[in-house]
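Recall from the previous chapter that SMILES is a line notation for molecules. Here it describes zinc ion.
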Amino acid sequence: MNTENSRRCDHCNNTLQIEGYVFRGGEAYACSDKCRDHVCADKYNTTWDEEYDDDGDSYYTEWEDSDLCHSLLEK
Ligand SMILES: [Zn+2]
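With both inputs in hand, we obtain:
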């Protein structure tokens, strides 16, 4: 495990390894729809619809281990 790269859900503190929600370019993360809504409400006092539309820095994404990614892409 590389803890330097770990991302944690701002609501439940779960480690995000594969996919999750990013807020405002990486200010905060959320691991699920429910946590996403909590982070919106608790941290930004908004809804996901507002976050997602406003500036484009909040989105759902998938992260891949860079080494794994390379080995998969290089056939
Ligand atoms: Zn969570």
